[in-house]
């Protein structure tokens, strides 16, 4: 085809082809250096038509300027052997170009599984070093693995495996049934690589989180549904087609038996008859009709019978509710005198100890039935991973249909119980003495019985047997507690570590939990409950993460829950860790008081400690010297004019968060989640051209910027207001102690000094919005493409696929690498100093009035479209803050991103060092977002490119990227 003379081209075409001059641009193609997997499923739905090497609607590059060196001599030979320079990219070209680029998805896991599951994948890469990249850290201690129901790898698990030997080797291979039920948000993703941040998955799940579910009225006792609950329980045990009336002793005996059966590891389908007799002769009434004519004694029949009982409404504790996961330990151990909540609410409205015992009985009964169900599910799924198909598809569909959220969470509780708790029976004449044991794994509760006064003695006045409930991983949990304290840089940790450890061991042996009622009908109980909503919240709005307040008590149920490992997935473990640390530190308890705001923060011995539920903690986490561990932040930044004690921070939800929850959440719009982050900009894969891409960069300004220095001046807490009232009608020392340690609510702000060209200005930002920060998912630059700089338009001349330097080549290798960005992703860059000057402008104004960074525009593209993403440049002219050095770190600098290919060990080093960055500049950028109400993606150089961060912002439907 003859070429078109330059003189015949229209002015609009020449203008479009020269728009992107002097940009660092990208296209690609490379020899088959490595075998790549087939294209992602995200493209498989679009029919791929045969690509034509010619498209008459695409412009050719502009001619070189007259008289320039480029016009002398013959034009350089293109690297790619294409019929035309502006040929479309093939599937193989696209895969190589975006090798190492994360792709963002939201896919449903099946029926009855709730909102879709967000995930990040590298569908075109097989290298371990790329596929293992993550935007969150690993669980750092075996004691904390209870935080999530997702399968995961725990760092250093081998060092914590000694306790497994005490239970016959819990880590050995065993058939496990995993219910399709997980905590939301995913707690693994809540531990972002950057301190104070979360990951992509957690960010999307925040608006469908478990904390946003409606309250379960009438949990466990005589509250709103008291009579309905009692009637339903009575009906359940009086029916001849359901649960038998079980004595308390039998419940504990059967729990002990199930523990031995579970730990023996012998769970197979051959046990069907034995399990059938055990279930229908002692626990349930046999079915009144034949369910399976082929095998009436099958495991499927037993599973259906147990499901029928466990799905009975208004009977069982619903642990799909966040609050009740934490209150699990309160039901078992929260009946000690001297424990009571100070915010006027309690776990139940029981008036007597007998009612508390009633609740404990039904909890243990629920655990028993869930364990019976789980053991049968383990047995029936044994061998399925080896291809032994013994489960009929109809049984699977029936189970998924009938097993509601209450049943699935009961199964998770059963797994936690069987893995961590042991029940032993002691006869009356051989009951252990009531004194502290010297062993590491002594009983958590001694002489535990469920009898009230009317059941205390039988007719012949014989004393009932007592039962010992042991946590079998006490040593592991105590090691995890000291690990938590060290990571948070707890004051005087060296001298307090031994004391905290000894006190935590004592928790295993002291304060026996007895079922005998107390004399007083006002026996106090430690309680955890939601704090009152702050007045700044509009009526009907709820925070995405629950605010939790509790009364701490030495040797209380909070410590016992953690030390026993009886912890359900979710954020409960972070609350229990801090509560256990404080309850076993007498000096801290004396200074801070018994009231605790586990979703706020406290000041103690020259440091401030903040829950990641609190926006102040998420902002201060960006500072140099801060530390984060399991949902808690420690910082050297102290608030002015506030003494040691707990504080509560008032915040407002962002408008986007309040409008997009539940079914309106971004996660439910799974089509647009993938569309708005597609590497091809949702374009037709058969018509993608090299000129459609550029490599975005943050430091490309027309005018030079002055040197900017940022220094944090102060954290201010003001407008104190009482958050808790003292206990009404109490005049004893307990109420006085509560009154002396009130928790006040404050509004918070941060002040900074900015220095530019020798002039200092002060800026104060109010941390008034409950914003979140996401660590941009790491990426790895493509190994199949070499990006080069070129003064011409974005054509194939800007890619070197030969892998070698060609003598006399006009272009030079680019110093900045990254993945290209499609022209549909519009963005604009603003320097942090410019943002300070224009801080009063709304986001839309900043996007419109700042030059947008776009790829070359075709004549048909709408040039008036407002950019979608604001990139805050915290890189240009700011000195790089080196990572904090530690004596144990073998590295002195972060390894190059490209070295991650195939090197999993260096990925681990990157992860371990990721949280040692920080500066006042980073705190300032987050503080601006907290005042303006901007959720932001945190993108750091050498971990990920700007193009991938902009695509992730598109997936989240967020508008701001902070580039560090």
TrEMBL record:
<feature type="compositionally biased region" description="Polar residues">
    <location>
        <begin position="41"/>
        <end position="55"/>
    </location>
</feature>
<feature type="compositionally biased region" description="Polar residues">
    <location>
        <begin position="504"/>
        <end position="518"/>
    </location>
</feature>
<feature type="region of interest" description="Disordered">
    <location>
        <begin position="1"/>
        <end position="77"/>
    </location>
</feature>
<feature type="region of interest" description="Disordered">
    <location>
        <begin position="504"/>
        <end position="537"/>
    </location>
</feature>
<protein>
    <recommendedName>
        <fullName>Helicase-like protein</fullName>
    </recommendedName>
</protein>
<feature type="compositionally biased region" description="Pro residues">
    <location>
        <begin position="60"/>
        <end position="77"/>
    </location>
</feature>
<feature type="compositionally biased region" description="Polar residues">
    <location>
        <begin position="9"/>
        <end position="22"/>
    </location>
</feature>
């Amino acid at each position: 085809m003859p070429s078109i003379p330059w003189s015949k081209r229209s002015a609009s075409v020449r203008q479009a082809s020269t728009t992107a001059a002097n940009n660092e641009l990208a296209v690609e193609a490379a020899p088959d250096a490595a075998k790549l997997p087939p294209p992602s499923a995200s493209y498989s739905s679009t029919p791929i038509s045969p690509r034509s090497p010619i498209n008459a609607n695409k412009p050719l590059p502009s001619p070189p300027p007259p008289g320039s060196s480029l016009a002398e001599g013959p034009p350089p030979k293109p690297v790619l052997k294409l019929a035309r320079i502006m040929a479309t990219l093939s599937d193989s070209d696209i895969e190589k170009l975006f090798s190492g680029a994360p792709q963002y998805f939201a896919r449903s896991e099946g029926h009855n599984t709730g909102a879709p599951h967000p995930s990040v994948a590298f569908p075109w890469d097989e290298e371990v070093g790329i596929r293992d990249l993550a935007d969150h850290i690993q669980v750092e201690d075996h004691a904390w693995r209870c935080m999530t129901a997702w399968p995961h790898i725990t760092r250093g698990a081998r060092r914590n495996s000694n306790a497994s030997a005490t239970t016959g080797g819990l880590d050995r291979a065993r058939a496990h049934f995993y219910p399709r039920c997980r905590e939301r948000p995913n707690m693994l993703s809540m531990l972002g690589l950057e301190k104070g941040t979360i990951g992509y998955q957690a960010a999307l799940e925040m608006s469908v989180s478990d904390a946003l579910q409606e309250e379960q009225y009438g949990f466990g006792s005589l509250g709103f549904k008291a009579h309905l609950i009692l009637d339903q329980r009575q009906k359940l045990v009086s029916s001849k087609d359901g649960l038998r009336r079980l004595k308390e002793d039998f419940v504990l005996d059967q729990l002990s038996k199930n523990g031995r059966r579970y730990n023996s590891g012998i769970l197979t389908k051959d046990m069907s008859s034995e399990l059938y007799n055990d279930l229908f002769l002692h626990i349930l009434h046999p079915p009144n009709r034949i369910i399976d004519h082929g095998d009436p004694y099958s495991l499927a029949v037993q599973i259906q019978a147990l499901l029928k009982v466990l799905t009975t409404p208004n009977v069982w504790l619903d642990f799909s509710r966040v609050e009740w996961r934490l209150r699990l330990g309160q039901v078992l151990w929260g009946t000690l005198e001297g424990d009571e909540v100070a915010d006027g609410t309690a776990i139940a409205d029981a008036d007597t100890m007998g009612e508390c015992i009633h609740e404990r009985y039904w909890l243990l009964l629920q655990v028993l039935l869930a364990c019976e169900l789980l053991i049968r599910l383990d047995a029936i799924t044994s061998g399925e991973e080896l291809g032994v198909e013994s489960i009929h598809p109809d049984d699977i569909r029936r189970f998924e249909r009938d097993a509601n959220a209450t049943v699935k969470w009961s199964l998770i509780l059963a797994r936690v119980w069987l893995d961590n708790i042991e029940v032993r029976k002691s006869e009356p004449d051989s009951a252990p003495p009531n004194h502290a044991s010297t062993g590491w794994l002594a009983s958590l509760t001694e002489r535990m019985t469920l009898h009230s006064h009317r059941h205390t003695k039988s007719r012949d006045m014989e004393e009932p047997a007592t039962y010992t409930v042991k946590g079998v991983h006490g040593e592991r949990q105590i090691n995890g507690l000291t690990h938590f304290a060290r990571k948070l840089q707890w004051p005087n940790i060296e001298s307090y570590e031994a004391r905290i450890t000894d006190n935590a061991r004592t928790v295993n042996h002291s304060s026996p939990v007895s079922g005998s009622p107390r004399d007083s009908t006002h026996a106090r109980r430690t309680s955890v409950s939601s704090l009152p909503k702050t007045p700044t919240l509009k009526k009907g709005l709820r925070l995405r993460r629950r605010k939790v307040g509790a009364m701490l008590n030495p040797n209380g149920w909070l410590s016992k829950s953690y030390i026993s490992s009886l912890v359900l997935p979710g954020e409960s473990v972070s609350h229990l860790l801090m509560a256990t640390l404080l309850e076993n530190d007498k000096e801290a308890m004396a200074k801070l008081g018994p009231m605790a705001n586990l979703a706020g923060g406290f000041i103690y011995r020259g440091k401030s400690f903040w829950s990641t539920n609190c926006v102040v903690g998420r902002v201060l986490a960006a500072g140099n010297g801060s530390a984060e561990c399991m949902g808690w932040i420690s910082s050297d930044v102290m608030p002015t004019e506030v003494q040691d004690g707990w504080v509560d921070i008032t915040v407002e939800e962002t408008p986007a968060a309040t409008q997009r929850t539940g079914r309106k959440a971004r996660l439910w719009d799974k089509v647009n989640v993938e569309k708005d982050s597609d590497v091809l900009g949702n374009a037709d894969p058969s018509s993608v051209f090299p000129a459609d891409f550029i490599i975005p960069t943050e430091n490309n300004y027309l005018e030079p910027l002055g040197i900017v220095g940022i220094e944090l001046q102060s954290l201010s807490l003001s407008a104190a207001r009482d958050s808790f009232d003292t206990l009404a009608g109490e005049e004893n020392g307990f109420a006085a102690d509560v009154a002396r340690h009130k928790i006040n609510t404050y509004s918070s702000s941060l002040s900074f000094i900015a220095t530019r060209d020798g002039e200092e200005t002060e800026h104060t930002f109010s941390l008034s919005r409950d914003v979140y920060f996401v660590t941009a998912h790491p990426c790895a630059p493509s190994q199949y493409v070499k990006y080069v700089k070129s003064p011409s338009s974005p054509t194939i001349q800007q890619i070197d696929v030969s892998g070698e330097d060609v003598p006399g080549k006009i272009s030079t290798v680019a110093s900045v690498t990254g993945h290209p960005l499609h022209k549909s992703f519009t963005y604009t860059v603003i320097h942090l100093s410019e943002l300070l000057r224009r801080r009063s402008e709304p986001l839309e104004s900043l996007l419109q009035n700042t030059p947008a960074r776009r790829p070359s525009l075709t004549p048909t593209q709408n040039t008036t479209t407002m950019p979608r993403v604001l990139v805050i440049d915290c890189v240009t002219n700011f000195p790089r803050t080196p990572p904090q050095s530690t004596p144990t770190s073998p590295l002195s600098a972060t390894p190059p991103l490209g070295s991650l290919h195939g090197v999993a060990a260096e990925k681990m080093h990157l992860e371990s060092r990721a949280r040692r960055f920080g500066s006042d500049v980073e705190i300032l950028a987050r503080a601006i977002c907290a005042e303006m109400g901007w959720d932001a993606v945190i993108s750091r150089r050498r971990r990920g490119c700007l193009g991938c961060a902009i695509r992730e912002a598109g997936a989240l439907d967020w508008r701001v990227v902070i580039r560090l």
